[in-house]
Structure formats: structure tokens, C-alpha cells
Amino acid sequence: MTPSPIEVSLEEAAALVKSGDHVVVGCLAAEPIGLVRAVCGRAHELRDVTITAGVLLDGYPVLDAPEESFRFRTWLMPTSSSHRVDPSRVSFMPFSWSQAVDWLRRIKIDVAIVQVAPGPDGNYSLGTSVSYGRVAVDHAETVIGVVNPLMPYTFGDSVIPASALDVIVHDEAELPVLTNRPAGPRDRALAMSVAETIPDGALLQVGVGVLPDAVIAGLVDLGRRNLRQFSMLTDSFLELVKHRALTDEGPQAIVGEIVGSSALYDYVRENRRVTMADGRRTHAMKGLLERKGLVVLGSALEVDLLGQANLEVRGGAQFSGVGGAMDFGVAAATSQATADSVIMLHSATADGTSRIVPRLSGGMVSLPRTLVRRVVTEHGAAVLDSASARERAERLVAVADPAHRDELARHLRANPALFGA
Fold it and tell me: 0.70 exceeded by the pTM?
């Protein structure tokens, strides 16, 4: 007979975290908000507890607690969300997504706190988040399941037996939502330049942000069909559903994270057209190379004339993380016949600073030039495949903000030993 999890109160569940523990908690829409707050409320009696998580939409109460009580560890800086925190309080791990998942598989996890949906068959589902949550459940010494009937029951790697949970606590709560500002004219122009290059039948890797949403809108306007999504779902997916742009064969989406509005959460509830896959399937190289028609849509803070991209440092501080960009970039470069990748960015910031630069700020290379295949701004696409160093630079100058092209061209001419003939 398989053991059943013990049912406890929120306070009793929080008391299971001890000084010195390493605790992994769910993120984005699956953030176990109530229990995280309860654990942080015990700061006066805890010391040296490490909390590891991705982006937390409810804020970072762990960073409001005394430093001697908690340390927050992540591979995606809190400043990549709508919240601003003291970066000196964050133990940043410079990992790609696949590296983060593998790291969690190898290290000791004392407690995993995950939000789960109850199922009719006695199983539970990790719902909207499985990318690293499934690994945490599989390897933690103690697994606490926060049972929330508002969490959508999803299929795939998210389904876990009751025996995978040591403790359950019931906490019905609305899931965190994430919305983006509407796309402006510059956003739409840039996005359409990207959308026009994406064929019917593509498997889209689309992240969070205004530009990815605008690309999806562009695909709808262009009448693209038989599309699927990979790795992450946001509200833009509902536009593809509404306009019947998705495939009728097999899953419409194979993803590790779902975050958006309550309408999106309602759509994926018990929907077998959406398959959840953990990070070992969405970001590990073996799995990526098996994905046919993969189109990766990424963004960058800046790109230099060598074709290198900075995705994570702004103003001399760690702003975000490389996320899955390195994993997807390697896959696209390795399997060029079946995959493509695009870096999207506006040619200049709101204050007019060029985002195509002679050299990256602080030397931060998130993506080396060997993995950057296409860079698209509102002024067009710089195709860097099969181009020499000089040709790459010339193409990047051509899509830079017109006010900065002369300066970039002067840098190119002044460095013949770097860019060659």
C-alpha cells in the first residue's frame, strides 16, 4: 500500500522548514504564496535558510527578512520581474535553464514546496509549472504540496502520484497573473518583420514580453496555420486559439511554464492538447535536437558589432539571466536545417541610446557570436549566418538606429584587425 501524505495546517507546514535548510519553491503562476509568506514570518526563529526559486510574481518577502535568516538563490534576477530589490541580497547563479535544472538534480534539497491541483484519480498535478518543479519533487527529502483547487489540472510531466508528497496543506487562492503593456507602433513594426519570416507549421518558442506577444499578433494577421508552442505559454497563445492558427494534430503546446490571465488558466485546465514537460525535455540538448521546425524568438538588451548579445546586465548590474537562450541558441546552431533563432530588439532605447553597440557593456557576453543567427530591429533583419566578421558588422550597422550608424561604421573602419576584410 502506497503511503498517503499527511495533511497539516499552513502553520504546521511552515514549521517543517528548519535552520540551515535548502528550500526550493515553485515560481510564476505556481508560486505557493501563502506558505512562502508563512515561512518568512518565522524569520525570527530561523537562521541560514536558503530559498531557491525562479521569478516570484508576489514579490520577494524573503528579501525583506533579516539577512541572517534567509538567503535567496536564483538564476533569474528579481529585477527581471516588475519588482525591484536589493541585488546584493541575491545569490545569483549564472546558469542557463538546462544547467539550473541539472544543478537542482545534483544538489541536496531539504524541502520542496510546490502548488498542486487535485485530480479525480487520486493523483495530483503540478499545474502551470513543471520546468524545475518536477525535478525538485523527485529529489527533495521532504515535499510539501499546497493543494489549490484553482490550480488547473494539466497533463504530462506535471502529473504526480499522491505518494510523491510527504505533506499536504489546503490553501485555495487565485493564481498570480502576468500581463504586458499593449504593443506600440515600433513594437508592431519590429514584430511584423519577424513574423513574416516564420512559416506555417512552426514550433514557436516564445517568451514573456511585449515583442513576443506582438509577433504572435503578426502571425495571426498573416494567417499562419498549423502552429504549435514550446517551452512557455502566455496569453498570446489564446490569440492563436481564437484564430484557429494552431495544429489539429497532436499537442498544440509542449511547455514547462504557463503564466498569464485567468482565461489562460481556464483554457489549459484538463486540456490534453497542452502537454507539460519538465526542463530535462524542454531545454536539454537531446530533446531540443528532436524538435522539428523550432523557431526561437529571443530578445537582448544590446548586440555588438561582432554579433555578441548581452541579455542580462544593464547599468553595470545583473538585471536578468540568460534563461533558456543559451540552450535554444546551441540547438538552433547545431540543427540549422530544422531550427531557427531570432534576437529581437529596438535599435535604440527610449532616451535614444543605441542598442547596437561597438562593444558590449561591461564585457557581458550572454550569447557568443557563434550562436546569434539573426538580429531584427524595426529597421530590418541582419542575417548573420554564413557571413564573415566584417559582413556581420556591416549588416548590423544597417539595422541600427540611423542616428548612430556613422559612429558604428567608424568603429568598424578603425578596427580592421578585428573585423578583417
Answer: yes
Q: Which helix (H) or strand (E) segment is 262 a member of?
A: helix 262-268
pLDDT in tens, 34-77: 999 999 999 999 999 999 999 888 878 888 888 899 999 999 88
Would you place residue 338 in the very low, low, confident or very high pLDDT band (cuts 50, 70, 90)? low
Distance of CA 8 to the CA centre of its chain: 32
> What domains lie within the chain, and their CATH numbers?
6-170 (3.40.1080.10), 185-419 (3.40.1080.10)
pLDDT on residue 83: 54
What separation in angstroms does the CA of 300 have from each of 65, 90, 313, 353, 391? 33, 22, 10, 14, 21
Q: How many helices (H) and strands (E) does the chain have?
A: 14, 24
Residue 313 bridge partners (DSSP): 318
pLDDT band, very low/low/confident/very high, at 256 (cuts 50, 70, 90): very high
Q: Which residue has the cell 522539428?
A: 292
Q: What are phi and psi of 168, to 5 degrees?
A: -125, 150
Collapse the DSSP code of 266 into the 3-class scheme (helix H, G, I; strand E, B; otherwise coil) and give the result.
helix
Cell numbers at 288, concatenated: 531540443
Determine the angle formed by the axes of helices 405-414 and 389-398, rounding to 10 degrees: 170
User: 519570416: which residue's cell?
Assistant: 197
What string of DSSP letters covers 141-200? SEEEEEE-TTSPP-EETTEE-GGG-SEEEE---PPP----PPP-HHHHHHHHHHHTTPPT
Let me know: does 111 contact 16? Beta carbons within 8 Å. Answer: yes
Quote the CA–CA distance of 405 and 398 in Å, as a whole number. 7
Kindly state the average pLDDT of the residues 224-232. 95
What is the amino acid identity at position 319? Answer: F
